[in-house]
Amino acid sequence: TKWVYTFGDGTAEGSAQDRNLLGGKGANLAEMSNLGLPVPPGMTISTEVCSWFYKNDRAYPDELSEQVNSALAHVGKLTGRTFGDAERPLLLSVRSGARASMPGMMDTVLNLGLNDQSVQAMARDAGDERFAYDSYRRFIQMYADVVMGLDHEVFEDILEDEKARFGHELDTDLSAEEWKTVIARYKQTIEEELEQPFPQDPVEQLWGAISAVFSSWMTARAVTYRQLHDIPSDWGTAVNVQAMVFGNLGDTSATGVAFTRNPSTGANELYGEFLVNAQGEDVVAGIRTPQSLTEQARLEAGSDRPSLEKLMPDAFEEFRAICDRLEKHYCDMQDLEFTVERGKLWMLQTRAGKRTAKAALKIAVELADDGVITTQEAIRRIDPASLDQLLHPTIDPRAVRDVIGSGLPASPGAATGEIVFTSEEAVAKAEAGHKVILVRVETSPEDIHGMHAAEGILTTRGGMTSHAAVVARGMGTPCVSGAGSLRVDMRTETLLTVSGPLKKGDVITVDGSTGQVLKGTVAMLQPELSGDFGRIMEWADTARRMKVRTNAETPADARAARSFGAEGIGLCRTEHMFFEGDRIVAMREMILADTEDGRRSALAKLLPMQRSDFTELFEIMKGTPVTIRLLDPPLHEFLPKSDEEIDEVAAAMGVPADQLRERTEALHEFNPMLGHRGCRLAISYPEIAEMQARAIFEAAIQAGEDTGEHVVPEIMVPLVSLREELRFVKGRIDAVAGEVMQEAGQKIDYLVGTMIELPRAAIRAHRIAEEAEFFSFGTNDLTQTTFGISRDDAAAFLGTYQKKGIIEQDPFISLDLDGVGELIAIASNKGREARPEIKLGICGEHGGDPLSIHFCEKIGLDYVSCSPFRVPIARLAAAQAAL
Ligand code: ADP
Ligand code: MG
Ligand code: MG
């Protein structure tokens, strides 16, 4: 079997195609070598050796050492040196390299092969003693750290100590003699701490390093990382053994890293840093401040230290040409490592560069414009979830942050405003033109209007799926939840923080992208929706099949969603409309009435308000489909809860408090989620559904007249499990439609459909489809009812489930494809069987989750509907799913 693959001198035994066998680093070293680029020769010990190693109790295949030796001989021939030789020693770097780059793997060991003898030869050979001993101390330090497991801090302490003693500031100031002293102390420390000497035999050093790489595949950190990123453990890592080139060979030598484009802005400019007279790790380790690669970057940084362009023009020009070539070759922005040894350039690594969401867009668009990649490929290159970062104002990365507390990054974006502690105050202050941050222990449905009025939300309790978090994400309002180090004292209206109390009206900033809470105002960057973002969205819109709608009930949400490209409303929840202003009064009056007549007269007060709500929504949505769900929650939710509130409300309504209390008690349910709600309400009190239907139809006529658009409302009946339920409610809706058409003397087109959110409905979908003209999968409730898990109580154990590996993902965030997904697939098929033209959509939180969207495409849904701020994510994910 072939276990070892060589590269160097313009050829290689592998190529970029061999990522699985050679790991990312090895495959790209081979590729660069094949391209004729200056790569120090070396070998890659394949990932198959790693698998063999673990299958055979950490042993190696018999042929391995022979193959390594002959590869070493080959490298020796190319370099004119011999590994282990005392006169012209070949020194090596030993580097790990898995298929996907992976933190937790062994760090690189440089200068391997040096010992007390060969260091002298190196010094003679290079004519530079300082260089040789600098390399030797680096080697001892790295090897002892990564192979022998001695913490590098002990070495840093020794070095600091000696530098102080010799009166030096920089490592580069130490003379050869001084390095010798340091080296002696290093070796002595190793003997003392590990009770064994530092190995002098190069062969022992090499196999020690190779074993350390393979062993690092199973360290706790690497194992955890693989679990988190779904990387199978049998992939294994490769080991790259490569001839050293020296960036620490005096002032004509250097080492650096570069990106072919700016990784934070995406600008098409060479971007990077280097250090003169240094080796690999120094640049990232921050021992010295690195210098800019290009003159332009140097000028922009206002630095007086020369750029590589100025300092080593020949090496720089060669490097710049290689960057261009590699970017074209890989059709993507590259992240590169290089070293200059006495004026000669060497390439040490290339890979696709990590980038911000903003840079990813810019780079994809420019590469597509230049014809390097197709627009489809450009669409594929963008991570839909990353778009979220771009849709909200963010804190300027250059701003100073005065952090006074932190919690969970519950809803992205940053917002500044005055502290308010109640929703009423939030509304009042916002109406008076102030920007406010609503600060609560936690929020509840009564806070909706306050949450809408606020720029940002801060809670001191609750997780990522708490009420505040879910609602804030839906509204696109920045939110930090569960900031446990802060305390709200409602009595004194203060927010207690470690750096002192804050009063109502004090200004704070919440950063929902990091979870930080900051004092005062902070400089912000505004989102940019045109430009590159707009181009990618345009391409995505051409590529996708599914429509993207939004879940919205307020005009502000609907407008935001339109600006993000929503093609209709998939879910308008009408209950939120009943909390606003004095509507809640009429609503409570309706609930308190004991006769149908009493209810009808209270409903008559709500009718014009509902009608104007819907008219406005239809007008904003300009003839695109709007799905309106009839009242869904149990009536109990609209009534006051505490005795205090009951007294207050009773007084305001002019009814005896006891009557209100009795009604509240009568409506109490043990499990409201499974109680008197959804279509069950419409069956008990058809007049409520009738009022809503009338408001919808009258609004459709009105909006049609105002805008000239043909408005086709879609009325959705919630929580249906039986065909008979839907037939009953639909009968009432149709009757109202008939009345309104008669009154208006015109025809109204409309659809009546249902939400599929109960398992029985999914299984009996063919029967329900006899009545329903559309299905909308309400996957929040469908997930609750399929699992029998209440979302509000799930936090207590779902986290544990994930930690213990019982489930991989929170089914409320990413659709449970095997269970809930299967029900959706069944219902879709049965629905189409009974009614081939049936419209199918999804309207749960999952409608904005890329993985769930892929599933929706696969089973052929007509549209997904999600919260306004997820609309662009859904547009892109739907395009990717269709490609
Ligand atoms: P990482 O995956 O952490 O980037 P690498 O294996 O790329 O680790 O090595 C880290 C650094 O070591 C590189 O930036 C490079 O400067 C240096 N290095 C690696 N191989 C060599 C070599 N053959 N000669 C000189 N320096 C090297
Ligand atoms: Mg590297
Ligand atoms: Mg529901």
TrEMBL record:
UniProt cross-references to InterPro entries, sorted A to Z: ATP_grasp_subdomain_1 (IPR013815), PEP-util_enz_mobile_dom (IPR008279), PEP_util_AS (IPR018274), PEP_util_C (IPR000121), PEP_util_CS (IPR023151), Phosphohistidine_dom_sf (IPR036637), PPDK_AMP/ATP-bd (IPR002192), Pyruvate_phosphate_dikinase (IPR010121)
Cofactor (UniProt): Mg(2+)
EC number: 2.7.9.1
Recorded coiled-coil stretches: none
Domain spans labelled PEP-utilising enzyme C-terminal: 530-881
Reactions accelerated catalytically: pyruvate + phosphate + ATP = phosphoenolpyruvate + AMP + diphosphate + H(+)
Keywords on record: ATP-binding, Kinase, Magnesium, Metal-binding, Nucleotide-binding, Pyruvate, Transferase
Domain PEP-utilising enzyme mobile intervals: 435-515
Class of enzymatic activity (EC top level): transferase
One annotated GO molecular function: pyruvate, phosphate dikinase activity
Superkingdom of origin: Bacteria
Keyword Metal-binding: yes
Sequence ranges assigned to domain Pyruvate phosphate dikinase AMP/ATP-binding in this UniProt record: 20-298, 309-364
rRNA-binding is among the record's keywords: no
Similarity field: Belongs to the PEP-utilizing enzyme family.
Task of the protein: Catalyzes the reversible phosphorylation of pyruvate and phosphate.
Protein name: Pyruvate, phosphate dikinase
Lineage: Bacteria, Pseudomonadati, Pseudomonadota, Alphaproteobacteria, Hyphomicrobiales
